[in-house]
Amino acid sequence: MFDTFAVYTRPAMMLHVLRTRVGDAAFFGILRAWTAGHAGGNATTADFAALAERETGLELDRFFEAWLFTPARPRQSEIPS
């Protein structure tokens, strides 16, 4: 639970890889929609994943599964696009 990699580094890496997968325009669209829709409120990881899929039109279940719910960090060759 308090593993520095799992808590701080891995989510930042996931966001960076998401940005490289969907491109800057889509990524920053996700961020704008996220902050507009959840300012001052609560949300879940599933909410973020669903928003990312809506904003990009991509199916990202395998991507989020690999980055957020699989114990080991994905190797570059295993990162789903």
Structure described in brief:
By secondary structure, this protein is mainly alpha-helical. The chain is built from 4 helices and no strands.
Shape: globular
How much of the sequence lies in strands comes to: under 5%
**What is the succession of H and E elements?**
HHHH
Structural class: mainly alpha
Unreliable sequence segments: none
Structure description:
The chain has 81 residues and is an all-alpha fold. The chain contains 4 helices and no strands. The chain has helices at 4-22, 24-38, 45-56, 61-69. The longest helix has 19 residues, at 4-22. The model has no long low-confidence stretch (mean pLDDT 86).
Key features of this structure:
81 residues, mainly alpha, globular
Give the topology, please:
Elements: H1 4-22, H2 24-38, H3 45-56, H4 61-69
